[in-house]
TrEMBL record:
<comment type="pathway">
    <text>Cell wall biogenesis; peptidoglycan biosynthesis.</text>
</comment>
<dbReference type="GO" id="GO:0008360">
    <property type="term" value="P:regulation of cell shape"/>
</dbReference>
<dbReference type="InterPro" id="IPR005490">
    <property type="entry name" value="LD_TPept_cat_dom"/>
</dbReference>
<keyword id="KW-0961">Cell wall biogenesis/degradation</keyword>
<feature type="active site" description="Proton donor/acceptor">
    <location>
        <position position="173"/>
    </location>
</feature>
<comment type="similarity">
    <text>Belongs to the YkuD family.</text>
</comment>
<dbReference type="GO" id="GO:0005576">
    <property type="term" value="C:extracellular region"/>
</dbReference>
<dbReference type="GO" id="GO:0071555">
    <property type="term" value="P:cell wall organization"/>
</dbReference>
<feature type="domain" description="L,D-TPase catalytic">
    <location>
        <begin position="76"/>
        <end position="213"/>
    </location>
</feature>
<keyword id="KW-0573">Peptidoglycan synthesis</keyword>
<keyword id="KW-0808">Transferase</keyword>
<keyword id="KW-0378">Hydrolase</keyword>
<dbReference type="GO" id="GO:0071972">
    <property type="term" value="F:peptidoglycan L,D-transpeptidase activity"/>
</dbReference>
<keyword id="KW-0133">Cell shape</keyword>
<dbReference type="GO" id="GO:0016757">
    <property type="term" value="F:glycosyltransferase activity"/>
</dbReference>
<protein>
    <recommendedName>
        <fullName>L,D-TPase catalytic domain-containing protein</fullName>
    </recommendedName>
</protein>
<dbReference type="Pfam" id="PF03734">
    <property type="entry name" value="YkuD"/>
</dbReference>
């Protein structure tokens, strides 16, 4: 302690000003997880697109974000991890947009590499005959076709998945049950909150490669 005190006294007696340390700029490091905004789109040209944020958002832990995501798949690829219940849109420089999804319940899970064969806004819903029969056996009568509207099981947007020229009958689509995001709830389709599927819809086109794991 005496040696330290003496050093402080001597330093206080120096007439020349102390040398300022050089200014070192801290490099800006992009956050590994960047939450994305859910502001409503005031430019919507379809009145049905308005007010689909509000109570249609996925639960807080399942909000979309931009993240670090190294992968061998090229940018523009959609990767769906059914175990994690996440959909990734691969970007440049090892990044990706991450969305949370609902996936097939037990017995309806699947995997493979397909492509987006068609894109529809406010799609009509044509449930498979097997689904109609299955639901009828449970006492639920569902129509053979439903117009695109609030409450339609396909939500505000649908991306139709094809294996070559063949429609797989699986879709990436919206849902009016956002609380089902992050769960095993569908008959094999990939569910997204309407706000998320509307965002993804604007980023992908027909021919986009989709890898389901």
């Amino acid at each position: 302690m005496p040696a330290l005190a003496a050093g402080l006294v001597l330093a206080a007696c120096v007439a020349t000003p102390p040398v300022e340390p050089p200014v070192v700029e801290t490099p800006v490091v992009e956050a590994p997880v960047k939450p994305l905004s859910y502001l409503p789109d005031d430019t919507a040209d379809d009145p049905r697109d308005l007010n689909l944020v509000g109570d249609q958002l996925p639960p807080e832990p399942f909000r979309r974000a931009e993240i670090d995501y190294p992968t061998a798949e090229p940018p523009g690829t959609v990767i769906i991890d059914t175990g994690e219940k996440h959909l990734y849109l691969v970007e440049e420089d090892g990044r990706a947009l991450r969305y949370s999804v609902g996936v097939g319940r037990e017995g309806f899970a699947w995997k493979g590499t397909v492509a987006i064969g068609s894109r529809q806004k406010w799609p009509r819903w044509f449930p498979p005959k097997e689904m109609i029969a299955r639901e009828a056996a449970r006492g639920h009568n569902i129509p053979e076709m439903m117009e695109g509207q609030i409450g339609n099981p396909l939500g505000a947007r649908a991306l139709y998945l094809y294996d070559g020229p063949k429609d797989t009958l699986f879709r990436i689509h919206g849902t009016f049950e956002p609380k089902s995001i992050g769960t095993n709830a569908s008959s094999g389709c990939i569910r997204m909150a309407n706000a998320d599927v509307m965002d993804l819809y604007e980023r992908v086109g027909v021919g986009t490669r989709v890898v389901v794991r």
